[in-house]
């Protein structure tokens, strides 16, 4: 069964470029982003991991740890990091785990429908949809998921925007409208009446009885 929003993210222990990782312990009280890809030393994956390398300071500002998942070895990851740095212009300063046995890929349901993979001779095509994203909260619950096919590189600016929206709305009665970015107005939940909403967020802009905007709370 696929993971659903608010499921507890499966815990796991795996070797990584930063030593053994016990996922829940490693996450601690931070948000986390798990992002996976088909294989090391492949073109799209190299550009994607380069994009993540460039965004590491932005994730750190948001109390968020990023974790790459690959079906290759820690040794290969170490070699591949040199290629990532050459593309990104910055070091790949984030952990990458070794998931050659597909423990994490299967626990997080990252594989295509025909996922009966051979133990040897696996190619990127065997794990064609292992290009997934999971945003995990400090409570270890799944907040957001995305899955892309092997041929389409992810938009990490959108992943960062989604993370901002998750953090903004976590535990408070607001939501974000389409295409929201930090600083723009937010939608006030119907759980608050107009008076309570204005006391909490200031004057409302009411466009429809059920669509009420307020200034983005700091």
From TrEMBL:
General function of this protein: Thiol-specific peroxidase that catalyzes the reduction of hydrogen peroxide and organic hydroperoxides to water and alcohols, respectively. Plays a role in cell protection against oxidative stress by detoxifying peroxides.
SUPFAM superfamilies named among the record's database cross-references: Thioredoxin-like
Family, per entry: Belongs to the peroxiredoxin family. Prx6 subfamily. Belongs to the peroxiredoxin family. AhpC/Prx1 subfamily.
Keyword terms of this UniProt record: Antioxidant, Oxidoreductase, Peroxidase, Redox-active center
One Pfam family here: 1-cysPrx_C
Boundaries of every Thioredoxin domain copy: 3-168
The name this protein goes by in its record: Thioredoxin peroxidase
Top-level taxon: Bacteria
């Amino acid at each position: 069964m696929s993971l659903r929003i608010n499921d507890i993210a499966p815990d796991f222990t795996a070797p990584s470029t930063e030593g053994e990782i016990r996922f829940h312990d490693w996450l601690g009280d931070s948000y986390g982003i798990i992002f996976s890809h088909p294989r090391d030393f492949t073109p799209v994956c190299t550009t994607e991991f380069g994009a993540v390398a460039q965004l590491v300071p932005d994730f750190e500002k948001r109390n968020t740890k990023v974790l790459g998942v690959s079906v290759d070895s820690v040794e290969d990851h170490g070699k591949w990091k040199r290629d990532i740095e050459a593309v990104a212009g910055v070091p790949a300063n984030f952990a990458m785990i070794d998931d050659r046995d597909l423990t994490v890929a299967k626990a997080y349901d990252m594989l295509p429908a025909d996922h009966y993979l051979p133990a040897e001779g696996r190619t990127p095509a065997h794990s064609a949809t292992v290009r997934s994203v999971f945003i995990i909260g400090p409570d270890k619950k799944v907040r957001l998921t995305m899955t892309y096919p092997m041929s389409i590189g992810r938009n990490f600016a959108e992943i960062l925007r989604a993370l901002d929206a998750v953090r903004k709305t976590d535990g408070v009665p607001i939501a974000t409208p389409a295409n929201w970015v930090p600083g723009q107005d937010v939608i006030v939940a119907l759980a608050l009446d107009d008076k309570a909403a204005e006391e909490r967020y200031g004057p409302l802009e009411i466009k429809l009885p059920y669509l009420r905007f307020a200034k983005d709370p700091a």
